User: Fold this.
Amino acid sequence: QVQLVESGGGLVQAGGSLRLSCAASGRTFSSHAMAWFRQAPGKEREFVAAINWSGGVTYYAVSVKGRFTISRDNAKNTVYLQMNSLKPEDTAVYYCKVITWGSMTPLGGSWGQGTQVTVSS
Assistant:
């Protein structure tokens, strides 16, 4: 089972940038598709971006396409989310998860603690 720890969140002004990291444990990390999700206060958790096992294919939610970039370094067991041109509506707790590629369905039971991103206007 892959254990995941998110980091890199913080407070940033609108238009700014942040880079989130998701460190994974487990020797099977490189065989899994991964995704970032987020949950804003009072809202349901939503899909943000996904990357296939090799890093060669990515997929984005319409709301972040062109502003966010997902990448991975399998040698470091880490997935990244580069977030540029941040907007107040990007404020949320961000989580990474192993997913089923195609349906982008998160796998595994519990979610990690996530990392808080707050964008001020």
Summary: The chain has a mean pLDDT of 95.
